[in-house]
Amino acid sequence: MAEDQNILLEKIKEQGDIVRKLKASKESNDKIKEEVSKLLALKAQLKPEEATPQKFTLKTAKGTRDYNAQQMTIRNNVLQKITNVFKKHGAECLDTPVFELKDVLTGKYGEDSKLIYDLKDQGGEILSLRYDLTVPLARYLAMNKINNLKRYHIAKVYRRDNPAMTRGRYREFYQCDYDIAGQFDPMVPDAECLKVVTEILDALDIGRYVLKVNHRRLLDGMFEACGVPADKFRSTCSTVDKLDKMSWDEVRTEMINEKGVTPDAADQIGEYVRLNGGTELVEKLLADEKLSKCKSAVEGLEGIKLLLHFCSLFGIKDKIVFDLSLARGLDYYTGVIYEAVLTQPIKIGNEEQTVGSIAGGGRYDNLVGMFDSKNKQVPCVGVSIGVERIFSVLEAKLAAGEISVRTTEVDVYVASAQKNFLDERMKICAQLWDAGIKTEQSYKKNPKMLTQLQHCEENGIPFAVVLGEAELKRGVVKIRNIITREEVEVPQDDLVQELKVKIDALDRKVMNGPVV
Amino acid sequence: MAEDQNILLEKIKEQGDIVRKLKASKESNDKIKEEVSKLLALKAQLKPEEATPQKFTLKTAKGTRDYNAQQMTIRNNVLQKITNVFKKHGAECLDTPVFELKDVLTGKYGEDSKLIYDLKDQGGEILSLRYDLTVPLARYLAMNKINNLKRYHIAKVYRRDNPAMTRGRYREFYQCDYDIAGQFDPMVPDAECLKVVTEILDALDIGRYVLKVNHRRLLDGMFEACGVPADKFRSTCSTVDKLDKMSWDEVRTEMINEKGVTPDAADQIGEYVRLNGGTELVEKLLADEKLSKCKSAVEGLEGIKLLLHFCSLFGIKDKIVFDLSLARGLDYYTGVIYEAVLTQPIKIGNEEQTVGSIAGGGRYDNLVGMFDSKNKQVPCVGVSIGVERIFSVLEAKLAAGEISVRTTEVDVYVASAQKNFLDERMKICAQLWDAGIKTEQSYKKNPKMLTQLQHCEENGIPFAVVLGEAELKRGVVKIRNIITREEVEVPQDDLVQELKVKIDALDRKVMNGPVV
């Protein structure tokens, strides 16, 4: 904006004020016309781009959105519940920058790398926005030579994907990650990740779910046993991963036509990936003629068997399904992989919303080593909660009136029925703020009493302090209960104390409304 | 990473395991040598880029940093205190995307626009990272046609500035913004912003401070009175803004040589910008021969006078200084401007750290209108807390051992002195987690007792549940107090109840260590 334009805008504002005042005081039409013509003359001086300042569509970037106060209340509530579970399991909190050197991300995501956002080369380093929180964690561990860490990280990640915003698929979205790094005994941290997911989904109470588990070594073994060449394991894997969105026939066609798998091999894979179950399925596959001959398949199956045992000790076995069709797209997984899926659509009003996958993760033992000059490995396992889908369900419930939220926590509104009480209101506000009481007042000099009380009702503020001349002379003020409309007089000196007692006695659950 | 390379890495890992096992079981040297040579042969197959995977320097992008667990604990503590004050004043929480359409940011920051990070054009929209939280707020208000809002926003912003990281100047840094939008009576919301800043700085307790205030209308009037042409007001203003880093002589030279101000005008400005004080200075300037003739100067002075009156009602007048040298660089301010400055260096060990400005803001009545097709204005005023400088002070204190932090909140560690107790430990952990108790255990099958107790001591975990065969047979477990080393036996059925009583009785202040 040009500097003189800014001053011109000021002048237009001033002239507008003059016109408004004349109109308000019902001056003669001639006088008003004269000032209006001055105003129009000033506006004519505005450059075209200032007169119509908005030349572009006013919107957020494709696939992104603002969070308004109600959405933020829901979001903060969900993230708090997730954080509580992470902390219950002793995880530390970490944060990394939103962008990384592009080299850090290169070669970590397989086919999905094309979805990475790059920054413009403005001189200096070549940077990209983070695509997930896992690769930055691996970079952090390698850079600081840390061998042992349990951390959580809640932050936004960026993918130039095809957004489907009504279903909670964005280009900027939150991930809530929990990872355990270190050389430990088999499946002990892996099982805890599953326990963490169950605790989070139970705390969020958004419906029935299953946790699907599988093992990359078993997938490799299965591909080997079915005659897929080793160099096609990963790409075949990423095709199997599409089974939740495509039919087996479509997946089979892609395997044969795009991944170069023979029809015979594809058909053999098809037999396996239809299987799911529990320990009995593991036993059956351990006895399977083809798989039992393949070292990595046996290793994977033994891993799943141990994992299921630990899940049974954790009391979560009824929520776990061993599913051979689970593949996970990302390149970096090396061991167990998991995915949490809601098993029933969520009813919102008269509509049903299918949510599908809401958490996923697995073991990635080689990722840290890719950043180490001596290829030193730090084995890792972790899980990521896909909260956007949870947000979108709750927001739909909010829109349908099934839940309600309060967007502020104000307990007291300082009001006055009379004119010229701004100074007194300000003094009382400062007194309450300094005592730690959440307080608001009108920013107008002489607000109407009705407007003030309406503000309290609309915003769920439980109490109003009402100032009046007669009361102030006697050294008292009124406290009004907004819901019951009951009013009590208290000495000004006791105001803080009285309010604190009343606030402590509030039933918060009712005040803040049910969330979820 | 090529797919077959991933499999090769697996094979190398397996072969490595074989070699380690042979060495551990003290097999013959020949046998070990044979397996080592196999290992080396596998490693030789690695492509050069895999054998030395780290071809680039392992670092975060220039001007950015990771936050480790201790830094995050400090950061979350500071942000929580700030959030509490924002909520105490009834602000709602909003969030906007990290990037905006480039057009949204264009023309809002004057000379600083060159510091904006752009995203690469990968097809589709042209995007930039947000430079502050104020312009996205204005875009949000205009886009949603909101006339009235009190919101806070805590998020990272991005500036391609010259970083000085030891002093808390980064390219990615937090801003904590509090803004009031709406048509209200003069200086009422403006004064509350100052009150909010004092409450935050008092809560953070990082030393004495002053809040400098000034008024853009007064600056404009002063420039006008000193003979600066109107089209040079804003650029002269951004030169005055440098007075906190440059001497008057340098500023004067820049005004004359770069901004085209006459030496005479510059000298007159020099007389004014040296002034600071309180209400008595306002009165003196209202009587000033030159300024009293200039409408905008009088308007600015009347504004400051009213603001100081409200600050006095709020009980914060002793912290406010009316300072004519305060200018603020950004283009969009139109009324009051403010800046909070620590008045004494902070002692850390034997060194003193000068912190300087830690908050700033002002009124920007024309910014929202720049996004509205009809140029409809929504007056706004707000303040932004520069927390990075506060973080850097606290981190320096942490490094000097003057404060300590605990990075997890774990209350109970489930331990065992005997081998093969993993299953029992897992069952107890699940029991405690399900009861909401923050619990950890070793991820090793057979951890040493000493290691487990050391972990508790190092991490400030107050209690250990110690499992033993003899006790379990009798249906009891031991609870050990890590600090006193006292042990009590409790029936397994009472474990949750007993632990909850003990945890509730903890003195948290001591446990978590002083922060700040």
Automatic annotation (TrEMBL), chains A, B:
UniProt xrefs under InterPro entries: aa-tRNA-synth_II, aa-tRNA-synth_II/BPL/LPL, Anticodon-bd, Anticodon-bd_dom_sf, His-tRNA-ligase, HisRS-like_core, HisRS/HisZ, HisRS_anticodon
Residues annotated as domain Aminoacyl-transfer RNA synthetases class-II family profile: 38-394
EC numbers: 6.1.1.21
Keywords from the UniProt entry: Aminoacyl-tRNA synthetase, ATP-binding, Cytoplasm, Ligase, Nucleotide-binding, Protein biosynthesis
GO biological process, one term: mitochondrial translation
Gene3D superfamilies: Anticodon-binding domain, Bira Bifunctional Protein, Domain 2
Gene Ontology molecular function, alphabetical: ATP binding; histidine-tRNA ligase activity; RNA binding
Top-tier EC class: ligase
SUPFAM superfamilies: Class II aaRS ABD-related, Class II aaRS and biotin synthetases, S15/NS1 RNA-binding domain
Domain WHEP-TRS: 4-60
Domain of life of the organism encoding this protein: Eukaryota
Reaction(s) the record says it catalyses: tRNA(His) + L-histidine + ATP = L-histidyl-tRNA(His) + AMP + diphosphate + H(+)
Matching CDD domains: HisRS-like_core, HisRS_anticodon
Gene Ontology, cellular component aspect: cytosol; mitochondrion
HAMAP family: His_tRNA_synth
Family under the similarity heading: Belongs to the class-II aminoacyl-tRNA synthetase family.
Protein name, UniProt field: histidine--tRNA ligase
Native source species: Leptidea sinapis
